[in-house]
Task: structure prediction
Amino acid sequence: MRKLIFKLMGCYLSFTFIMQPLNANEIKNEKQNIVAGSKKLSLEEHQILKQKRQDQVDEENERGELVSNGMYLTTHPMASHGIYKVSALYDTIELNDGSIWCVYFYTDQEVISRWAYHNDQVIICPGTIFDITDYLLISQRTGEVVPVDLKEIEVIIDDPYFMGQRLWINHIDYAYDIVYGCFYYKIRLNDGSIWEVCTRDNAIASLMFPGDIVFVGVDENLGAPTYNILVHFNSLEYVHADCIVR
Result:
């Protein structure tokens, strides 16, 4: 009987020893998705904002057309995004920062499959009032444009930096420009970069707080006030901003 008890105790200890690191590994790699737009504007407010932006472009006698080619200007290197994964039907695409985007037209699913096959780098661009979606993904290799909607982000529990690719707001200042006589927002991200927000987007910047996740995009619309945009995950909106320190 004593031999049997010792054998059972040995089996239990061996089982516990084996299971502990497995459980720890499962916790370390645990992932979950968070839905975007927890602070999104109402449909009416959103449409007013889009129309206002279009009116500002028209006032400058610019056409507001997207320049969709492989070359672009940016003030921050993380405006270029790799493709992390795609869904089985190619109707969603996840970028290397964990942002997940829904492909609007099913006819573009074939385009997404080619992008994934060639491991394309893409940029996030804002749509105009004439586009069906608020954002567009553009391949740097081919210049192809795919209308998309920001859906959610993937979160790795033990890796808030998402393999070093995720950006969020560390600090926000409301500063005064003596030269132009106006107030503007200055944003510092977790990578140490500092961004100046265009004054025309102060209303959206007021919705942004420390800890909020942002994605770097590029505005190649003619008449855009900045080279870059910061897409705000919580509101689904963006601000025109350029990186001045990094």
User: Anything to note?
Assistant: The first helix runs from residue 2 to 28.
